[in-house]
Amino acid sequence: MDRKEKILSYMCSKEYIPLKFAELMTVLDVPAEDEEELRDILTELCIEGKIYMTKKGRYMSVEGESSTVVGKLVCNAKGFFGFVICDDENESDIFISGDDMGDAINGDRVIVHIDDNDNAKGHRQGHITKVLERGNKVIVGVIYKEKERYFYVRPDNRKIYSKIIIAQSDAMTAQMGDRVAVQVTRYSDKKKIFGEVISVLGQQDSLKSCIEGIILGNDIKQEFDKETLNEADKIPQTVTESQFAGREDLRDMIIFTIDGDDARDFDDAVSLTLKDNGNYYLGVHIADVSEYVKEGTALENEAYKRGTSVYLADRVIPMLPTSLSNGICSLNPQVDRLTLSVFMEITGDGNVVSHKLCKSVICSKERMTYNNVNKMLEDSDEELCERYKHILPTLKLMEDLAQILKNKRTLRGAIQFDFPESHIVVNENGEPIEIEKEVRGTSNKMIEEFMLSANETIAEYAFWSEIPFVYRNHEAPTLEKIMTFNEFILHFGLSFKGKIDRDTPIHPKALQQILDTVKDTPQERIVASTMLHSLMKAKYSEENLGHFGLAAKYYCHFTSPIRRYPDLAIHRILKDFLDGKVTGNRISYLAGYVSAASKHSSDCEVNAETAERDVDDLMKTAYMSSFIGQTFEGVVANVTNFGMFVELENSVEGLIRVENMTDDYYEYDEKVNTLTGRRKQKSYTTGDVVNIVVARTDILSRQIDFVLAKDADRKLLKKFAKPIEIHKSEKHGKKSKRKKSFKKYNKKKK
After folding, report:
1. Measuring CA to CA, which residue among 433, 437, 442, 511 is closest to residue 474?
2. Predicted confidence band at 730 (pLDDT cuts at 50, 70, 90)?
3. Percent helix, strand and coil across the chain, each rounded to 5?
4. CA 288 to CA 572: how far, in whole Å?
5. How far apart are CA 469 and CA 545, in angstroms?
6. Strand 653-657 relative to strand 703-708, pairing
7. 434: how many CB neighbours lie within 10 A of its CB?
8. CB neighbours of 726 closer than 8 A, spacing ≥ 6?
9. Which residues are CB-contacts of 475 (< 8 A; sequence separation ≥ 6)?
10. Per-residue CA distances from 15 to 10, 11, 12, 24, 63 (Å)
């Protein structure tokens, strides 16, 4: 038992009484030279939620208190109440009323005392007793002035209920209506938050300031520090013969990359041959980033902190400096590169019967694009086929293998979301000018199948090798979520076949059957999107729990170490294992490392996805500002008591408010999820195709207002032409200067 475990064991014992730090030093007989180590241990235990410090500075244990749990507070959109998502995934969420939050705000990690009574909807209810860790390092919002005494900031994140009080001396150069980034300096028991402005981002309705706010609000770092950049700059941009030791030389093989037209970092390359027995021999070659990003370096620490690259509509925020991601680590054509290669022997029915993992060096023969390969395989483009005739036979062989692998996945029940995603095109100023559908052709699906096979093979290899590892898990959805989804698809005349209960869990094949039924219908995207939200979120973990969506027993992320930290961690572990270094103390170290890296990377992924989604919503709102007054066809995506959300073909979603449905008085029926007119009995429900007019856009709230085309008379549209009031201070606020009316806009367009 190490020192940390002994301290925790003592604090959980019946003999322990709450002690201050100095008292613990005495009781535990800790020498003065070990004071800092004790502080570090106690801090770690607090962060882990195993102990906490009272207001009087005494340390107490959480363990042994059956009525106490640790988790993350997630508030509703106005902060009036929230739920604590428990660290222990076996524990159900706990309802927290606004009065029971104390000084905790959305995103904080807290200790909750569970009350004896449940709330009206059957949720466990509790009150927060301690904030363990603040979840908001920086809060972004718009600054306003309260009389002449001080400023305050209204957070962009509406889940943070309190305004942040800013002294005049802490406001920097911020002016009324600026978007600012705030560092919190103090939390008050009276639900007041105090802070100081650390950055002025620009005017509140500026597209640039909104994006910068989203980035900062999700704790995403854009710039690399000097130490990290200096380390990166010192790394040579060429591979030397001395680095070939212990690696297989694959430079004579036909190996090439296939990526998007605008890709700059190529972390995977592929090869394929036929064996004498007729089996396919697939090679997936991944950039050996761990060769350059060493443990204990600034590069490694920075990659760990970032966790992932972030792909926003107007920029990419990389995990690694571009000298690595676009340089020495990128599998550029006609240059030697260090790689980690996995070769898989695959039968004609898609079974991987053997594999080989090795450190390698390659020289990519070509930098192929999805577009060009699609033209060759789908259209037999003569010019391209002639230009790339040296790899064309390999491409055709790959096409055959990819179909075999896909059939294999389909047979075992993997879910395949094939509906087109949208891509936002921006101009040189970062403004949205087009929303395009991303078409996934033969080559896109081909590379996807090969990467999936590599990820599964490596995960299974690691599992049976019994080494510490970072798995990518996707657990089966809860029965409650499945039943809710089943109620949703009933509106389309769909339902699951067979019995589904706690003793008969859902199989992914049943979900795929639903997708097959709605394929190529107006409802496809709505059903697929709702299904996605019904599934559990995939996470990284040191335990192998399988991947429900892929119907795979073993899965990991191995193929993208340039842009994902878990892949980088896996490469480091696999190379150590190949070199015979995963023994003794190294195993113990790696066990702790993969546990911490898994949780941290999952958190970073959530932040990145939130930022990507919010920026997309912002860009879509700005884009639709050019179409005010125009008519579009859309599909009802959701119906609520306050209106209905309609999704257009370009993936843009807008709200038709019930008060603007002027031809009747519409009432909401929760049981059948419909809005029905009291007089005419006209009903609207999910999946209905409707014609809408774009009435108003507001980039501050990232909200788009639609009206039904049949209701879009001059009187109704004039209502939306009024200036949008961004916010008004309780006494001294001013209205926004945005006064462009619908009438003036239309005149301009003409």
Report:
1. 511
2. very low
3. 35, 30, 35
4. 9
5. 12
6. parallel
7. 11
8. 142, 177, 204, 205, 700, 735, 736, 738
9. 536, 545, 546, 548
10. 8, 8, 8, 13, 14
Alpha helices, H only, 118-252: 207-217, 226-234
Closest among 293, 616, 214, 285 to 436, alpha carbons compared: 616
129, exposed or middle or buried, with CB in 10 Å at 0-12, 13-18, 19+? middle
The band of 536, judged by pLDDT with boundaries at 50, 70 and 90, is very high
Residue 258 in tokens: 């296939």
Which among 341, 338, 358 is positioned nearest to 241, based on CA atoms? 338
What is the spatial distance between Cα 564 and Cα 308, in angstroms, rounded to a whole number?
5
State the pLDDT at residue 504: 79
Quick one: pLDDT band at residue 509, thresholds 50, 70, 90?
A: very high
Q: Where are the beta strands (DSSP E) in 119-267?
A: 124-133, 138-146, 150-155, 164-167, 178-187, 193-203, 248-249, 257-259
At position 219, the amino acid (one-letter code) is: D
Q: What residue ranges define each of the domains in the chain, with the CATH number in brackets?
A: 3-61 (1.10.10), 68-133 (2.40.50.140), 138-204 (2.40.50.700), 226-466 (no CATH), 479-534 (no CATH), 628-749 (2.40.50.140)
| Residue where the block lists tokens 């920075």 | 302
Query: Does 299 have pLDDT greater than 90?
Result: yes
Q: Is the pLDDT of residue 728 over 70?
A: no
Structure token digits, residue 619: 């860009």
Q: Is 194 exposed, middle or buried (0-12, 13-18, 19+ CB in 10 A)?
A: middle
Alpha-carbon gap, residue 181 to 218, rounded angstroms: 12
∠ CA 512-514-520, nearest 5°, is 100
Please list the alpha-helical segments (H only) found in 466-547: 479-489, 508-518, 524-534
Burial 299-318 (b: 16+ CB within 10 A, else e): bbebbbebbbbbebbbeebb
Distance CA 106, CA 95 (A): 13
Measure CA 64 to chain center.
35
Residue whose structure tokens are 């009484």:
17
What backbone torsions phi and psi does residue 693 show, to the nearest 5 degrees?
A: -120, 135
Q: Which of 624, 641, 747, 749 is nearest to 692 (CA)?
A: 624
User: Any idea how long the chain is?
Assistant: 750
pLDDT at 451: 98
The angle, 0 to 180 degrees and rounded to 10, between the axes of the packed helices 298-306 and 584-624 is 50
Q: Which of 661, 722, 725 is nearest to 690 (CA)?
A: 661
DSSP states of 100-116? G-TT--TT-EEEEEEEE
Contact 166, 195 (CB under 8 A): yes
Kindly give the residue spans of alpha helices, DSSP state H, lying in 28-73: 35-47
- Beta partners for residue 249, in sequence order: 361
d(CA 557, CA 311) in angstroms, rounded, equals: 18
Beta bridge pairs of residue 51: 61
Phi, psi of 440 (to 5 degrees): -95, 105
Burial class from Cβ neighbours inside 10 Å (0-12, 13-18, 19+) for residue 11 reads buried
Report the chain's mean pLDDT, rounded to a whole number: 89
Nearest-angstrom CA–CA distance, 477 and 555: 17
- Nearest-CA neighbor of 9 among 1, 19, 21? 1
